[in-house]
Amino acid sequence: MLKQPGSNFTRKLTMRDLIFKNLTSNDKKRRIIASSETIDKQGVRSIIHRHFVCIVKEVKDCPAERPLPYLYVLKERNSKERKEKFFCRIKGSVFAVNDGRLLLILFMHSLRINLVAVPEDSIKNGA
């Protein structure tokens, strides 16, 4: 518990772990950015994973069409085990022109969230 000086207001401290990754290929045509976050707050442990992948390809001929966009969403709830999961993935593409070159940019975003009930005593003991 944290008490702010000069006030009667107290608040619980929230434990948070963060991990970031930023990977780029040598030729700069592929990039992966990822983050992972774990938060323990009010008896709930939230584990959040985010990924972004981007691939750049030069297109020689004028293409007839680009790859179709894609969206996938999954949500699961288990009230018996007090767990909840959410997953979302979006894939898409965009054409761009850079220095007179036609580029196809492919991208994929994903988000995964896991919520799990954690007993208060295990948070206090650092488990």
Q: What do you see in this structure?
A:
With 127 residues, the chain is mainly β. It has one domain (12-124). Helices cover 4% and strands 65% of the residues. The protein has one helix and eight strands; from the N terminus they run E-E-E-E-E-E-E-E-H. It has one helix spanning 120-124, and strands spanning 2-3, 10-11, 15-24, 30-41, 44-58, 70-78, 83-98, 101-117. The strands form two sheets. It has a six-stranded antiparallel β-sheet, with no helix packed on it. Strand 4 (30-41) and strand 5 (44-58) form a beta hairpin. The longest helix is centred in the C-terminal third of the chain and has 5 residues, at 120-124. The radius of gyration is 21 Å and the shape is elongated.
